[in-house]
Each structure stands twice: as structure tokens, then as C-alpha cells.
Design a protein that fits this description.
single chain; Beta-Lactamase; Rossmann fold; 6-stranded antiparallel β-sheet; 11 helices; globular; disordered C terminus
């Protein structure tokens, strides 16, 4: 949190603290600054508009220079990606006029909106899911986590990676290769993960998934590959290459039902080859990370009673190694 407050002008920090309680400050998820419009503060429980904070164009330029550390090179690179990563894994999204060159985004000019997203890892958020995605020998099963936006897919993936990498919650330890195309899971800064992804995890950030998978297999010999939000058919082809190489998969996709994912061209190859051994569906109507259904590769539901027995068995086995949960941002 301090990393976020330190980049903001002091008067903005003061007005935010005047508008919310001390306990609500710990619930802070986003601060949305917009030129000539009120600032929006998004909390876990509510969202408020602060009319007294309205950036001028000159303030916007100064803030952009501050968060890019007055580096022209960094400014150019960050404006191409549309966001800036801060120490601690926090991210500032940028919006404004987009410059196009040869059909590609060259940069965002005249930045008019900043979305400061507070990153908090929730240690133990995958506690109840992990036993459902391992076999009787505590090895990883190829898993697809399915859910609409804001159901906690990224948060769950991050904690699964950490548990697999550090042999927690019943897993055997494995070398994990994380292809973090949007740099949201590990939130690397100068190549160094700012979020807890485990001691045996290697990260390739800001890299297209399909290319990154092949590069990771060749260079780091991972036992498990993890990617977030499969979006293209070539992503599935890359994941199949990993399966054929004997590497296990953990990945996610947007969706709400079996019918949704069966219709998505981007994952048809994985379904057709029965590469996925567990489909974990998250519930959009419950708190982020809540499991609604779990299915095997034939889309046969693993009954709730079976899942509870499996989870309880693993929790009993590892009761001597409790997982401490830190409540924070769910994404």
C-alpha cells in the first residue's frame, strides 16, 4: 500500500484519507484519476467519487513523469503496453488517445485516465482447490480454471503456483514455468517477481503465451506450465506441445458453464485431445475463489461429497503446516 501512496501527490493522499475510514483504507482496490473529472476510489464494499480531486492536464503530465521516473525510454515502453508496474506489484493502467503505426499500437498520447490497482496476494486462497487438482501421489493434474471476470481466477492461479512450487498443501514440489503475458500474476519489475509465486518458479513476462511456452520448455525444463486467460487457438496449440513434452498444465479461461467453454474455439484443441483432467468452475454469485463445480476430462462432475472428503483428507494430513491467510484484493 505504501508504494501506491508514495507515488500520489500528497494532497490527493490527504483527501482520500479524509473521505474513507482507516479500516476502509485496507480495503482499497483501485484509485481512478481522470482529467477534469472527479476521482473514483474503489473499495471492497463500495465505490465513492471525490469531487475535490480533479486532475488538470498539467498535473496529469507531472504524474506521468513521476511514475515513469522521468525516463523517456521507460515512458515510451510503458505507453506501448498501456500500464506501468510499481514496486510491490501494483499497477497503473493508462488511457487516452492511441497512436497507431502500421496497424499496431505505438503509444498512448495525451493520457487522460490513470487506474491505480492495488495488488495483494491472498496466501491460502487455493487451500480448498488444490486437493481437487492433484492425483493420489500428490502430483499435478492438468487443470483449467473457468469463471467470469472478478471471480478470482488470477488470485487462485497465483496461490496454486506458490503451493506447487514450494510443496505446500499436499503437493510434491515441482519446477513451475509461468508465462505471464499480461504480467498480472507475478507482476515482475525489472524481471523480478513482486508477488509470491514460489521458490521453484521461473517467470517469462510480457511474452505471448504460445511463443513463451516453447521458450520456457527449451530453456528452463519446467514440470508444470501455467498461463492465465487462454484467448487464442495458438495458445491451446502451445499448451498441447507442452502436454506432448510431458509437462503438466494449469491455465484459466473466461466462461461460466460447460456449454460456454465447449463453444470457445480457443480451447477446442485441448478438449478434443482430452488434455484437461480437471475443469474447475468458479461461482460468480459468491465471494471470489468460491468453487461451484469440478469435472473430470469426460465432463463428469466430481460430486461435492467426494471433493469435501478429498479436501478434508489433505487438510488432516497437513494440519501441522497451517496456511496463514492474508485478506486483500481479489481479482
Amino acid at each position: 500500500m505504501e508504494e501506491v501512496l508514495n507515488v500520489l501527490p500528497p494532497y490527493i493522499v490527504s483527501k482520500i484519507k479524509e473521505s474513507i475510514t482507516a479500516s476502509e483504507l485496507n480495503e482499497l482496490e483501485e484509485i481512478r484519476l481522470r482529467v477534469h473529472r472527479p476521482t473514483e476510489v474503489v473499495l471492497t464494499s463500495r465505490s465513492i467519487m471525490i469531487d475535490s480531486i480533479q486532475l488538470t492536464q498539467e498535473e496529469s503530465k507531472r504524474f506521468l513523469a513521476r511514475i515513469t521516473q522521468h525516463s523517456v525510454y521507460r515512458l515510451e515502453e510503458e505507453l506501448k503496453r498501456g500500464f506501468i508496474t510499481l514496486p510491490g506489484g501494483h499497477r497503473i493502467g493508462l488511457s487516452g488517445s492511441v497512436n497507431i503505426q502500421d496497424g499496431m499500437v505505438k503509444a498512448i498520447s495525451h493520457v487522460s485516465s490513470f487506474n491505480i490497482r492495488v495488488a495483494r496476494a491472498i496466501i491460502g486462497s487455493a487451500q480448498m482447490i488444490s486437493p481437487m487438482i492433484m492425483d493420489n501421489h500428490s502430483n499435478v493434474l492438468n487443470t483449467l480454471i473457468v469463471g467470469p471476470p472478478k471471480t478470482g481466477k488470477t488470485t487462485i492461479l497465483r496461490d496454486i503456483i506458490r503451493q506447487i512450487s514450494d510443496a505446500e498443501n499436499g503437493f510434491q514440489h515441482h519446477r513451475v514455468g509461468l508465462i505471464d503475458e499480461r504480467n498480472e500474476i507475478a507482476a515482475t519489475l525489472n524481471g523480478i517477481p513482486q508477488q509470491p509465486v514460489g521458490n521453484r518458479t521461473d517467470v517469462m513476462s510480457d511474452c505471448p503465451k504460445a511463443e513463451g511456452i516453447i521458450m520456457m520448455i527449451r530453456s528452463m525444463s519446467p514440470e508444470v506450465i501455467v498461463v492465465d486467460e487462454i484467448g487464442h487457438e495458438k495458445d491451446s496449440q502451445g499448451l498441447l506441445e507442452a502436454v506432448y513434452a510431458g509437462v503438466k498444465l494449469i491455465c484459466s479461461v473466461h466462461g461460466e458453464s460447460i456449454e460456454d467453454i465447449q463453444k470457445r474455439p480457443s480451447i477446442q484443441a485441448l478438449i478434443r485431445e482430452r488434455a484437461i483432467e480437471r475443469f474447475v468452475f468458479l461461482d460468480r454469485l459468491s465471494p471470489p475463489g468460491t468453487v461451484k463445480n469440478v469435472y473430470n476430462h469426460r465432463f463428469e462432475e466430481i460430486k461435492r461429497a467426494e471433493r469435501i472428503r478429498s479436501v478434508q483428507h489433505e487438510m488432516d494430513r497437513h494440519a501441522a503446516h497451517p496456511v496463514h491467510v492474508h485478506v486483500g484484493r481479489n481479482r
